From TrEMBL, chain A:
<dbReference type="InterPro" id="IPR036117">
    <property type="entry name" value="DhaL_dom_sf"/>
</dbReference>
<keyword id="KW-0808">Transferase</keyword>
<keyword id="KW-0418">Kinase</keyword>
<protein>
    <submittedName>
        <fullName>Dihydroxyacetone kinase subunit L</fullName>
    </submittedName>
</protein>
<feature type="domain" description="DhaL">
    <location>
        <begin position="7"/>
        <end position="207"/>
    </location>
</feature>
<dbReference type="InterPro" id="IPR050861">
    <property type="entry name" value="Dihydroxyacetone_Kinase"/>
</dbReference>
<dbReference type="InterPro" id="IPR004007">
    <property type="entry name" value="DhaL_dom"/>
</dbReference>
<dbReference type="InterPro" id="IPR012737">
    <property type="entry name" value="DhaK_L_YcgS"/>
</dbReference>
<dbReference type="Pfam" id="PF02734">
    <property type="entry name" value="Dak2"/>
</dbReference>
TrEMBL record, chain B:
<dbReference type="InterPro" id="IPR012736">
    <property type="entry name" value="DhaK_1"/>
</dbReference>
<dbReference type="InterPro" id="IPR050861">
    <property type="entry name" value="Dihydroxyacetone_Kinase"/>
</dbReference>
<dbReference type="InterPro" id="IPR004006">
    <property type="entry name" value="DhaK_dom"/>
</dbReference>
<dbReference type="Pfam" id="PF02733">
    <property type="entry name" value="Dak1"/>
</dbReference>
<protein>
    <submittedName>
        <fullName>Dihydroxyacetone kinase subunit DhaK</fullName>
    </submittedName>
</protein>
<dbReference type="GO" id="GO:0016301">
    <property type="term" value="F:kinase activity"/>
</dbReference>
<keyword id="KW-0808">Transferase</keyword>
<keyword id="KW-0418">Kinase</keyword>
<feature type="domain" description="DhaK">
    <location>
        <begin position="7"/>
        <end position="329"/>
    </location>
</feature>
Amino acid sequence: MTATNLADIEYVVRTIAQTAVDKEKEFGDFDAVVGDGDLGYSLARGFEKVLADWDSYKREDVSTFLQQIAVTITSRIGGSSGPLWGTAFLRASVTAKQFNEITGTAAVAMLRAATDGIKARGNSDLGDKTLLDALVPATDELERMITSGANAADCREAFAKSTRERAEATSELEAKRGRASYSGERSIGSPDAGALAVAIIIERIVAGWPER
Amino acid sequence: MKKFVNNPQQFVPEMLEGLALANPDTLKYVPEYNLIMRADGPDQNKVSIVQGSGSGHEPAHVMIVGKGMLDAACPGDVFAAPPFDYVHETTKLMASPKGVLLLVNNYTGDKMVFEMAQEMSAAEGVNVKTLFINDDVSVEDSTYTIGRRGVAGNFFVIKAVAAAAERGADLDEVIRVGEKVNSVTRTMGVALTACTPPAKGSPLFELGEDEIELGVGIHGEPGRRRAKIMPANDIVEELLTPIVKDLPFSDGDRVALMVNGLGGTPISELYLLYGQAHKRLAEQGITVGRSYVGEYCTSLDMAGASITLVRLDDEIESLLNDPAEIPIRVF
């Protein structure tokens, strides 16, 4: 594992954490439309702990680093979001062990492991109006771009654009998982809060990449 | 509602502290993780058996830690799954070379936390597996759960896997035993009153003076139906019939019969129920080989009871017959 790779992963995790903290109110407002309004609060409490513990994490390799993040957020994020986001980081961590270098292909594999983990842990799938409806098709798009030989910057832009479009498109879906599912048909017309949060996070990661 | 309580937030830690002080030679209390473990544990020569759940079900599970039963129990707050980091740290602390088995009653919150802790600990090199218990026949889904709930029948799974572990079985063998016992164990409960969590201070749900809840869960979740109070023998029939039909238990079967109090029912009433259940089983050609009457898995101060049947074979009966030493059985 190269030091450069770890620096990239650190940038990604730090941006996720900082965005979750900065956007606490906005994420909460998304969730209040049909959910119980605690998404912003929950994510912020988990990721502010990540920032607070930042210097204490071991940095032997990407996998070890990500696993410690998984422990922190699973422990600190309340409700079901803790185990769901924690599983995503844990599965990405385990998958990272298969790669000597975190290339675009490795990133796709880690994203797939993360979304598969969320599906398994939450007993959910595409169409249930969750963040999966944004992240899974966006990962498909990222993979398609990489396979087509597009340059790295174009791949990143396409990934962010696809996540945003798919997140907005969750408006058409009826919530089948989580607290939002209690709203049933009334959830149609508003996008899923988790999907929108993921879109905003990925847009920040992509926008800041050149100066990371 | 009058309770023995200081600060409701400290209800569980104060209970655990008392338990540890009362059993200094056999139990150890690790306050950082709400953990009660055998004072001599973890035994490096056997699989460690750990159960976690919300509190409020005592003696399950902190008071059934001891030789031949649990190696450790890690409870959450009253009726709340333990936090992930408690389960994760407990799993690592209890890791023996032969592995760790996490036993969990099938509730959504507990399931998510324990599966996550298992996966995390396994990624860190701990040999750990999880077994879910779902003995309740009354409903498939309920307020807290996906699929059948785990209730008082978990006692039999714990007893059998713990005996197998003491005899030296490896982790796969212990799981085989646990799955087998779970598959032949059926329970159904009834509430005469609601229960009162210390932090809430008032009853968790409304049950009329002349009403009972048939098929109630161990947190007072709704069951099959609400009925008017009826004679005890009729209540036994309401519980026993669905249990017998479910497995089904049949003529010639040999069973363990448990009448479990839910916390607020006198033992005298439990024996009254037991007598009728025993006789009704005998009339159907079902022989009671082992009997259990008392409080095993409660719902705070709820008046009520559950009936559990386990179909015995030589292996299960032998495991249930092995010695065990736990706080609630010390004279």
